[in-house]
Amino acid sequence: MTSQVSLMSYLQHGLPHLPVLDQAQSPPNTQNDHYREADITRVGHWTEFNLAAIQQQYGALLAAARIPDEPFQPSPPRPINSKRAVQSRINAYLTNRIIRALRCGFSYLKSTQQLANLTVVNYDAGTMAATIEDFTPDLAFFDPNLEIKTRPNRVPGDIEPSFKWSLDLRNHPDPTVRTEFKQALAQVNFYMNQHHARYGFILTDCELVAIRRLDRDGSLELADSIPWSARGSASQPRLTVLLGIWYLGMLAANDQDWSLD
Q1: Which of 7, 71, 194, 218 could form a disulfide with 65 if both were Cys (CB 3.0 to 4.6 A apart)?
Q2: Which residues on neighbouring strands pair with residue 132, listed in sequence order?
Q3: CB within 8 A of 61, min separation 6: which ones?
Q4: Host H or E run for residue 189
Q5: Structure pTM?
Q6: Nearby residues of 105 by Cβ (< 8 Å), 6 or more positions away
Q7: In this structure, are residues 182 and 40 in contact, taking their beta carbons and an 8 Å threshold?
Q8: 174: helix, coil or strand?
């Protein structure tokens, strides 16, 4: 029988390293006439997206809610060589765990009558939220009680291979590389503008980077990178990819905060 652990413990598992097959992949990010790197006018630092803030808001919930544990099995990870391969690994390692963690958290809040101003949201592929003008983010948080065509994506997510994008490229000496860094941000910013979402994120095979949109003029703040392999414990927690995505779901659930016109 699988042991029950705290929700915090469940979200402390680190993800296995994914080898990259070097096939001289093209580094340019997705190009589109509707968004470009010049749309990003400012890139600041989202200092409030951290473990202390999560514990202050949801520490009691993370400690009290119980869920069957799911340690990662010590099997050789499959390598990646494309965005599609990264999407496949993210789905295999993360999707069901995030869904179960959100359900656990919302169930606990409902049982303790703490769901005020929160909507129970789902996490899934971007196609499960509204598609606006044929643009679909890779990942979505949404209210499942709305029809798909009217569901805003409350926190749009973009998946990128690490050989195309990383937070470390922000201050790269090559201006062409810095352009590619902003091009990916412009894509997420476009999705956030479409869905009137305040938050978004980029997820690669190496890291999670949460994004906060400040206005409609390309002013963003990026949180510190959360390494793919980061892991901790209930007694010594760390900000892991699992915990970071779960927290983005809680931000998506906040009816008074997720939207920005």
Answers
A1: 7
A2: 135
A3: 7, 105, 108, 109, 114
A4: helix 175-195
A5: 0.96
A6: 7, 58, 61, 62, 65, 246, 250
A7: yes
A8: coil
**Is the CB of residue 213 less than 8 Å from the CB of residue 192?**
yes
Reference 180, options 26, 51, 60; nearest CA is 26
Query: Rounded to an integer, what distance in angstroms lies between the CA atom of residue 172 and that of residue 212?
Result: 22
* 3-state helix, strand and coil shares in percent for the chain, rounded to the nearest 5: 35, 20, 45
Q: What is the pLDDT of residues 116-166, one digit of tens each?
A: 999 999 999 999 999 999 999 999 999 999 999 999 999 999 999 999 999
Q: Which residue is listed with tokens 């499959």?
A: 78
Residue indicated by tokens 């999407």: 87
Domain ranges in the chain? Answer: 4-17+34-74+81-253
Summarised one tens digit per residue, pLDDT across range 52-93 is 999 999 999 999 999 999 998 888 889 999 999 999 999 999
How would you classify residue 134: left for phi > 0, otherwise alpha for psi between -120 and 50, otherwise beta?
left
Count of residues for the chain? 261
Over residues 89-128, the pLDDT tens digits come to 999 999 999 999 999 999 999 999 999 999 999 999 999 9
